[in-house]
Each structure stands twice: as structure tokens, then as C-alpha cells.
Amino acid sequence: MSDSQNLIKIAYLYEDLMNTYGDSGDIKILSYFLKQKGYQVQVDNISIDTPSFNAFDYDFLFFGGGQDFEQTVVAKDFPRFRDTIAKYIEDGRPFLGVCGGYQLLGSYYKTADGTVIKGLNILPFHTIFNPKNRMVGNTEYDCEFGRVHAFENHSGCTYFDDTKILKPFGKMIEGNGNNPEYHTEGMRYKNTIGCYSHGPLLKNTNVAKGILKMVLAAHAKRMADETTVKA
Ligand code: GLN
User: Fold this and answer.
1) Whole-angstrom distance, CA of residue 88 vs CA of residue 67
2) Where are the alpha helices (DSSP H) in the chain?
3) Which of 119, 145, 220, 230 has the most neighbouring CB atoms within 10 Å?
4) pLDDT tens figures, 15-30
5) Which atom of ligand 1 is nearest to the CA of 99?
């Protein structure tokens, strides 16, 4: 394999601002599995000091959770990446957003103090704080990759605005997931998955292996695209 064929490129969105809940563990686990398969892994922190960003230069986009304040800061910068991320998602390339990183793909997140944090409005859902209580605790659910054990810690309740487009990622056994009413966890649209699962999520190796397959397929596609451009 040539160097570029052997190199998996991961864009970690705002890792420096949105990693309060240890979601960087997802990238560590994914990198471990990729290295076991003989790949090299490059992880770029795409943040407020990144001059420009083309999502199609990457095989996987990851966005973890954060606190409301950091989300407000990130939400001000994030729109400059909207176009490339929307095209990447629509093209079926893999994106995993956890909690705050999930919320910011929707239209908005209204926090407990009434602040409306605008999302990229790429996918039809919105999030509103839970007036009763913050949702903190263990979660258990079934998804396409099998049983998942995770941990949630959020005040935002996510509601789908178009159930034809968005499908729930998981069916709850324990905990809240999207909100206390749906009994579902997260959403799936093409190869984009959003969820409230910390823990980190990919300690569930069944999910890690499912995501790994998506990443390798995206890598093969990117390599094919590069060959077409060069030819
Ligand atoms: N700040 C958001 C909320 O409380 C997201 C939290 C998180 O990322 N865990 O809903």
C-alpha cells in the first residue's frame, strides 16, 4: 500500500473546546482498531484557529460533547464549515456526533437560561432543555450493531422534525436517550449517527467495528476520488 492508501484521516471537530465528557476515547479506540489492521491514523483538530476545512479530505468526522458555554462559542464559528459538512453528510460519508456534537447538526438548542444556540440546520431536528431535570445516568439500548451500554449527561431533549428523513439510532432499554418521551437514542441519516452516548460509546466494540467498516469504505471512496482527479 502507498503511504496515502495506508493513511486514515480523521477530522475531530473542536476537540479542544468540546471534550468535557471524555469522548476523545472514541477516537482512541477507533485509532487502535485501525492500527491493528495496519493503517496509520492522522487526527486533525478542526477548531476556531483552523483557516479552512474541506470535509472530503477526511474519512471520518467526529464531534464530541461539551458544556453549554463552550457550545455557544463553537456555534459562532461552526457555520463557516456548514457547506462542506452538509455535502459530506449528503454524500453518505461517515460522521459521528455525540451529545453537543449531535445537537449542533440540528436547527437549534435552547438552553435552560433561554439562550438559543443555533445549529448548522443540516438535519431536521431541534433540542430544548428538559425543565424537570438534567438527564444523567447509565443507558442501555439496542441498535443496528447490537446491545450498547453507555452514559448520558445532558439537559437537552432532542425532537425530530421529519421522521421520514431521520431514523432513531437505538431503542432504549434504560435511560432517556433523545428525550424522556421517545424511548429512542439518537438518530441515523445515511452514514451520519448522532447520539447522547458517552462512556465512551466505542468501548462497545460491536459499535466500534461497525463504525470502522464505515470509515474504511469512506477511505476507499476517497482514494478512488483522488485517483480520478489525478488521471
Ligand atoms: N450542553 C449540552 C446539554 O446539556 C450537551 C451536553 C453534552 O454534550 N453532554 O444538553
Assistant:
1) 26
2) 24-36, 68-77, 82-90, 100-103, 205-230
3) 119
4) 999 999 999 999 999 9
5) 8
